[in-house]
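Please complete every field before forwarding. Incomplete forms are returned to the sender.

SECTION A: IDENTIFIERS
Entry label: holo-308
Bound molecule: nicotinamide-adenine-dinucleotide
Molecule representation: SMILES string

SECTION B: INPUTS
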Amino acid sequence: MSEFAGARVLVTGGSGFIGRRLVATLLAEGAEVVVADLNAHPDPEVRSVVGDLRDPGVRGEAVSAGLDGVVHLAAVTSVLRSVEDPAGTYEVNVAATAGLLELAREREVPRFTLASTNAVTGDVGSAPITEWQALRPLTPYGATKAAGEMLLSAYSGVYGMQACALRFANVYGQGMGHKDSFVPRLMRAAAEGAGVQVYGDGTQLRDYVHVDDIVQAVQVAWRTGHNGPLVVGSGRSVSVNELIEAAREVTGAPIPVEHVAAKQGEMPAVVLDTSLAKTLGYEPRHDLTTGLPTVWPDFAPGGVEGQA
Ligand SMILES: NC(=O)c1ccc[n+]([C@@H]2O[C@H](COP(=O)([O-])OP(=O)(O)OC[C@H]3O[C@@H](n4cnc5c(N)ncnc54)[C@H](O)[C@@H]3O)[C@@H](O)[C@H]2O)c1
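SECTION C: PREDICTED COMPLEX
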């Protein structure tokens, strides 16, 4: 039987890209799910607390006594937006997280899982990123996630909360029509017969992880009771050029590329060491060959986005 059968779980950001996929899995496994988000969950059967988690009243309604755990996904997720509005990003990603943790403590919620990012470590050269490197985030987004991780560490250390920060790689998969990361940009370009801009020569390495493997990592964190950070990725980095080639194969579109000057702070390589997650039972099931075809239908002419 699934560890989620009968469990009461609050998923903040449950109406977003990763959240919708997670909520569907939790429901299928017999969990009782409450979503807290700016937008109601598209399935009216799912109980939604609709509002801004910066508002203590919204947090108070969301974190009810009797919950078995919180999966905290709601955030300012755009690095660019965090650069434009660092103070606003702090309010959502740090202050609201602190408020949720405090309510979880007061209401004796035993588990708290935070969606963090591998960007908390900043530039480590071409060394594989592990859980144990110093945190040197290079953007307000990375800094606010690092701050969230520190808060979790304290609530675990002092109050015995099972608190895990999952450091996601670049996530892709079905349901990302509203996102502006590189995979949806490629899909949009393919659908529109357009091209994409690539910073530098495209040889920079990145780890692209499928949303279903992210959902699996949340399950692993819950099942094992892991405390602290956990690096979550596909475990295999590919170059941006390889990703573009894979997108061309899946979409059948030429997707021409314009190389532009690399942005300052553009990292030459992101290589993830996922061995700790693997010792806990995490086994990514997707690579780009199986994963990218799940993204294209949302963008393909006549597909879900095309019909909107
Ligand atoms: N997608 C990725 O590649 C990736 C990588 C690393 C980490 N993450 C983290 O994973 C989490 C989920 O990301 P996603 O890609 O599903 O993003 P998303 O933007 O699709 O979903 C985020 C959800 O949070 C909600 N939200 C934002 N601010 C809120 C607020 N103040 N109050 C209530 N709800 C609010 C939004 O309405 C949205 O539904 C985020 O914490 C993000 O930082 C994502």
